[in-house]
Design goal:
Blueprint: E1 4-12, H1 16-27, E2 30-34, E3 38-42, E4 49-53, E5 65-69, H2 72-81, E6 85-92, E7 97-103, E8 109-115
Parallel strand pairs: 1-4, 5-8
Antiparallel strand pairs: 1-5, 2-3, 3-4, 6-7, 7-8
Length: about 120
């Protein structure tokens, strides 16, 4: 059993800079992460977040949400047991997360991740 620690909606956009500026100005959000192909914006508390993505850097499909859990390996094992379609295999990413994507029966692609620490 894992615990969800954060949920972030992901919107696919054609250009990060212009779209980011709209969300910052209209909603009062601030940029808290920017990898060039994905940017995460948050309110002043950091609790309300949204990500804007052009094309995922290592996956063949863009997810519609990122859900951070305390044990991504356990979540992956459960997804396999449930027979969910894995569309991005469990792996460590260069930006410090361990993640996988599954597609639900309605076609939604979900990025399940845990932050990892150096050396793991």
């Amino acid at each position: 059993m894992t615990t969800t620690t954060r949920v972030v909606a992901i919107l696919t956009v054609t250009g990060i800079d212009a779209e980011r500026d709209h969300y910052v100005q209209v909603l009062g959000l601030s940029e808290v992460m920017n990898h060039g192909w994905i940017v995460t914006l948050a309110d002043e508390t950091g609790h309300q977040q949204i990500s804007l993505m052009t094309t995922d850097q290592t996956a063949a499909v863009n997810p519609s949400a990122s859900i951070e859990v305390d044990d991504v390996d356990a979540s992956y094992a459960i997804a396999l047991e449930q027979g969910l379609e894995i569309v991005h295999e469990l792996q460590n990413e260069p930006w410090g997360v361990r993640r996988f994507f599954f597609r639900d029966s309605s076609g939604n692609v979900i990025n399940v991740l845990s932050h990892r620490y150096s050396g793991t």
